[in-house]
Amino acid sequence: MFRKLYDWTLRWAGSRYAEPAMGAVSFVESSVFPIPADVLFIPMCLSRPDRVWRYALIATITSVLGGVFGWLIGHYAFDLLARPALEFYGKLAAFETLKSQTGDLAILVMLITSGLTHLPPMKVVTILSGVVSFDLKWFILSAIVARGGRFYLLAWALQRYGVRMTGFIERRMTAIVAGLILVGGLIWLATRMM
């Protein structure tokens, strides 16, 4: 099953619709969507290593624009749009905790860490930045640095090591999936016990 999904993703990543789809996912991931752009970015880079820099640019631009959209939602339409979305994803309590602990420096740190590692989730930080009226110029600059840094570093690594990584993944698909499920289960268990 995972082999078919993996093969399908790689084939689809090479299609003519891959760039607009990745741009759309990257945009909405920064404001409302729970799935990171990496699910398309990585297979696209693996299937077309000659285009990794183009993909990094597209992902960076659309992610920053999506972040600005999230900031606008938080600033102008929190109760109308953001609160229901955060409730739907079960992130309202995390959002309220973050909001109570934030100052400009905390927002800046969260923007950088969420842009680089998705912790805390980017959509939560972009909306929070708008709610607390974090300076939009600093918001955009930090998003460019963090998201651009992430996508360009990933592009470099995939261009340099992608062929070897692809071979490794294809030879050990079952073990990798089992390991990911095990790690995910342990993380879920640890969060339940706290």
UniProtKB/TrEMBL annotation:
Keywords: Membrane, Transmembrane, Transmembrane helix. The chain crosses the membrane at residues 55-78, 173-191. InterPro entries: DedA_domain (IPR051311). This is YqaA family protein. The lineage of its organism: Bacteria, Pseudomonadati, Pseudomonadota, Alphaproteobacteria, Rhodobacterales.
